[in-house]
Write a structure and sequence with these properties.
89 residues, alpha+beta, Arc Repressor Mutant, subunit A, two-stranded antiparallel sheet, 5 helices, 49% helix
Length: 89
């Protein structure tokens, strides 16, 4: 994880750790906003950077409801072992 920490800024690392610690359950942007107090713009930008620039997280094929009742993508750490994926299958 040391190399991961070195290339992330403070907010990216905070968001990455929240997602990483949830394992295959993952986090939505809305959940990240609620837990950290970040604005939607800031949380979604960090998720986008982690997914597209750093290639550290990926979308799951499921969605969960936000606080407003809308469907949201769930993000997990990229390349989780297959055993972790079967827990909630």
């Amino acid at each position: 994880m040391a190399s991961t920490e070195a290339k992330l800024n403070d907010l990216e690392l905070k968001v990455y750790d929240l997602i990483r610690l949830k394992g295959w359950e993952g986090k939505t942007c809305d959940e990240i906003e609620a837990e950290t107090g970040l604005t939607h713009q800031s949380a979604s930008a960090r998720v986008s950077e982690l997914e597209n620039r750093h290639k550290l997280i990926e979308r799951r094929s499921i969605r969960r409801k936000t606080r407003a009742g809308r469907q949201a993508r769930v993000y997990v750490v990229k390349g989780l072992p297959e055993a972790a994926k079967r827990i909630d299958a």
